[in-house]
Structures are given as structure tokens and as C-alpha cells.
Amino acid sequence: MNPKKDSDNLSSQSVEREARVSGQALWQWRLTAREQAIAANVPVDEVDWLLQDLAGLERQSLRLETFKARETIQLARSLPTLTVLWQQRLQERVPVQYLTGVAPWRQFLLNVSPAVLIPRPETECLIDLAIEAVRPTPLLTHGHWVDLGTGSGAIALGLALAFPDATIHAIDRSAAALAIAQSNAQQFNLVDRIQFYEGSWLQPLDHLKGQLSGIVANPPYIPSAMVPALQPEVARHEPHLALDGGADGLDCIRHLVATAPVYLQSGGVLLVEMMAGQAIAVADLLQQQGSYRQIQIYPDLAGIDRFALAYRRPHLSP
Ligand SMILES: C[S@@+](CC[C@H](N)C(=O)[O-])C[C@H]1O[C@@H](n2cnc3c(N)ncnc32)[C@H](O)[C@@H]1O
Q1: Which residue of 117, 155, 238 sits with most ligand 1 atoms within 8 Å of its CB, as the best mutation to test the pocket?
Q2: What is the number of domains present in the chain?
Q3: What is the pLDDT of residue 75?
Q4: Is residue 189 part of a domain?
Q5: Are the beta carbons of 49 and 40 closer than 8 angstroms?
Q6: What are the pLDDT digits (tens) for 186-196?
Q7: Which protein residue's CA is at the shortest distance from atom 17 of ligand 1?
Q8: Is there a contact between 302 and 122 (Cβ–Cβ < 8 Å)?
Q9: How many CA atoms lie less than 13 Å away from 301 in the CB half-sphere?
Q10: End-to-end CA distance of the chain
Q11: Which residues pair with 120 in a beta bridge?
Q12: Closest C-alpha to ligand 1, atom 26
């Protein structure tokens, strides 16, 4: 559990007077919630996420149900409060991460809010691909790396740990998302390593043209018409600015492929996440742009072609 949430819990604890329950009552609440999860087609484990991250229960105690034998348990949130939140999960399909305010990603437990996309497990691969991409040219682990469309700041934090000698630049058009990203950098003592900019794609980095070692992006890539048809947790609650990639889903990727060569140094890396089914189109865009070499497509952990990697061809001398 993260320290910020602990302190949130403690303050709510003093407000909530009814937060003392018997182990038996909690066991019954959990059993009912688990049954409701199954009926509503919600992952059962999410009940325990709520109990851990909001009520302050230990994972092990939940897993082994040792809490059941305790006479009283002091919860950070009362059962009626947890019931209200759980009903939001079941009926309004609010993602559990927005209810708890946290999402695990790589070694981080990140703060999230409805202002940011919940960072996905497949996106974790981008960091490993960036590490692999620079293995032949270790100089690229230095200098400037960019996380375009940083959202919660997940990729920027991952890059900061992967490349301790680099300066990371994190950009987003959403001020509310940047505030969350900054809170996460603070939480993991990485604020000195990451510079944050509110702006559109590479536009805030005019001063670094031709100098970037790498650009990593998980841009919006869902075709506009598909957004309302996504599962309700996503379509109704995640920010559409983070999802909608225009008519064919490729508007942002097209823009990044076209503009990145001006900002990358010779041999610099462009690494982009995309949707299932977009790999051929993205590889074509990179090829046709003419400034990239060694264009490669990589699958995610489910075997779906998900990432495009390319290196900047040498800049021609004037
Ligand atoms: C798919 S989300 C990715 C968030 C985060 N990087 C992650 O992987 O979890 C795309 C992000 O791009 C941002 N975005 C959308 N349009 C943008 C633009 N024109 N310039 C910069 N960021 C933009 C959104 O606000 C959102 O945070």
C-alpha cells in the first residue's frame, strides 16, 4: 500500500466512527461481495483490492481468511462506505483502480484518477524494449528520453529507473493528468529526474531538436467509432483524450512518425505502442517516412503485435 493512501486512510478513519467490525461480519461482507462480483462478471479479486487499498487489510490475512477469527477489526473505511463504493463498481462499472486511487505497474503502485488512463500491463513491455533497443549503443542510455502522452507518468518513471543517467521529459495535453504524473514522480523520489510539460506531443521540446536519445509513446489509438463500444469501464470512465485516435485510430501515431525525426539524434530510438491489427499500417508509415531504419514490430505478452520500434537514420550534413 502506498504511504499517501495510508495517510488518507488514517484521516478517513477518524471521520468514520463505525469502522470497527467483527471478523465474522467482515467475512460475511466479503463473501457477499464475491458472489456479487461473479454475478456481475467482475473479477472476484477486486473485492480484496478494495479491502486492502481502502480498508487497510493485509493481503495474506485476506487470502488465508485469518481475519475471520478476530473479535474486532479496525477498518480504515466502514462497511457501509465500502458497500457504496462496491456498488459503484458493480452498477456504474467504475474501474476498481479509480475507486482505490491506485494501480500497480511494474515495481510501482501508481496514483490514478479518472483524469488518467489506468496503466495497462502490456505497456510495461515498452520499458524492456527500450532497454533492449539501446544495448548495442550504450551511449543512448544517456541524454534525453521522452514519454509522449505521459498520463499517470508510468512510462516516464519506468524510463527514469531504466536509464539512471538520462533526463526524462514527460509531456501531456491534459493538465490534470500531469498533476497525477507529478504526484507519482514525487512519491518515488524521481521529480529531479523528470521534467513535465503541458503541450501537444513534441511541441514543448523545440529546444531539443536533433538531440533526443529516445521517444517512447503509448498514444491514443482507438478508432473514434469504436470508443463508445469499448467495455463500459473504459468507454464510460477513462478519458477519451487518452483513447480516441481519430477515424482510423492512427492520427496520433501518424503525427509522431512524421515529427519524431526532427527531434531524434542520429541513431535515436522511436518506440510506439499500438492497437491489435495496426502493425502493418504503422510499419508502412515508418517505412514511407524515409528517416527510419531497422523498423521492427514486437508482440505483447499475449502474442499480439503491439509495439513498433525504429531508429533515426543519420541526419544528413547541410
Ligand atoms: C493511451 S494514454 C497513455 C497514458 C500513459 N502513457 C500510459 O501508457 O498509461 C494517451 C495519453 O496521451 C495524452 N494525449 C492525447 N493527445 C495528446 C497530445 N496532442 N499531446 C500530448 N498528449 C496527448 C492523453 O492525455 C493521455 O494521457
Answers
A1: 117
A2: 2
A3: 92
A4: yes
A5: no
A6: 999 999 999 99
A7: 173
A8: yes
A9: 8
A10: 55
A11: none
A12: 242
Q: Which residues line ligand 1 (CB under 6 A)?
A: 117, 119, 123, 149-152, 154-155, 171-174, 177, 200-201, 218-220, 241-242
**Same domain, yes or no: 301 and 184:** yes
**CA 212 centroid distance within chain:** 23
Written as one letter, the residue type at 224 is S
Q: Of 78, 100, 122, which one is at a domain's C-terminal end?
A: 100
SS3 94: coil
- Do 273 and 256 fall into the same domain? yes
- Dihedrals phi, psi of 27, to nearest 5 degrees: -60, -45
Per-residue pLDDT reduced to its tens digit, 33-58: 999 999 999 999 999 999 999 888 99
The DSSP line for 205-258 is: GGGGTTTEEEEEE----B-GGGGGGS-HHHHHHS-GGGTB--TTS-HHHHHHHH
Gyration radius of the chain's alpha carbons: 22
- Say how many Å lie between the CA of residue 242 and the centre of ligand 1: 5
Question: Which cell numbers in the block locate residue 22?
Answer: 467483527
Beta bridge partners of 167: 144
**Rounded Cα gap, residues 240 and 43, in angstroms:** 24
CB 152 within 8 A of CB 181: yes
Q: What is the largest CA-CA distance in the chain?
A: 79
Examine the fold and report which residue of 100, 122, 139 is the final residue of a domain before the chain moves on.
100
Helix (H, G, I), strand (E, B) or coil at 143: strand
Closest-CA residue, ligand 1 atom 20, reads: 200
Strands of the sheet with 264-273, listed across from one edge: 194-198, 166-172, 143-148, 212-217, 264-273, 305-312, 292-299
Single-letter code of the amino acid located at 13: Q
Q: Up-side HSE of residue 46: CA atoms within 13 Å toward CB?
A: 27
Q: What is the pTM of this model?
A: 0.93
Rounded distance, CA 79 to CA 77, Å?
A: 7
Shared domain for 149 and 290, answered yes or no, is yes
Determine the pLDDT at residue 2.
40
